[in-house]
Design goal:
Order of helices and strands: HEHEEHHEE
Radius of gyration: 19 Å
Structural class: alpha+beta
Number of helices: 4
Distance between the termini: 40 Å
Number of strands: 5
Strand content: 5-15%
Strand order of the largest sheet: 1-3-2
Shape: flat
Length: 150
């Protein structure tokens, strides 16, 4: 919405102010794209395993403009113990996600409001400990002799 000048705070901005702000956002996207691409190239060249978590969505920058495709897309993280429902994509570099069976979620997770009402970038990016543990056991850990091994 901000790229298009449609966010609430931009309603009264002039076209010139919107275009300048659009340039600022585009420069940030380009910088972030360069950084993440360099990180992945280093991992590929040194054969390092890397997992990148990023929001999923039809209009998302990495979804539209990156040649690497996500190997796991979680459309509702709340079902696995996270605070929010938000769809998330995971890119696995130099590794493949496991598909370990894990027990159904039984513990209650602190209920938070819909992600649309959370404005703190830190709070929006939090992953609950329950979700992180379940993700590690499902997609990363080896399951041997009744134990998960990282």
């Amino acid at each position: 919405m901000q790229m298009l000048g449609n966010s609430k705070q931009q309603k009264k901005w002039s076209d010139e102010k919107n275009l300048k702000y659009n340039q600022y956002l585009t420069e940030g996207l380009e910088r972030n794209y360069q950084v993440i691409s360099r990180l992945v190239l280093i991992c590929m060249r040194r054969n390092l395993r890397c997992i990148i978590e990023n929001p999923a969505g039809g209009c998302h920058y990495l979804t539209r403009n990156w040649s690497i495709k996500p190997k796991v897309i979680d459309n509702n993280r709340k079902l696995n113990g996270d605070y929010y429902k938000k769809p998330t994509q995971f890119f696995f570099i130099n590794c493949e996600p496991k598909n370990n069976n894990i027990e159904p979620l039984t513990e209650a997770v602190e209920d938070r409001k819909d992600i649309g009402h959370v404005f703190s970038q830190v709070a929006r990016s939090e992953i609950s400990p329950v979700y992180a543990n379940r993700f590690l056991r499902r997609y990363i850990a080896e399951y041997k002799n009744g134990k998960y091994i990282l």
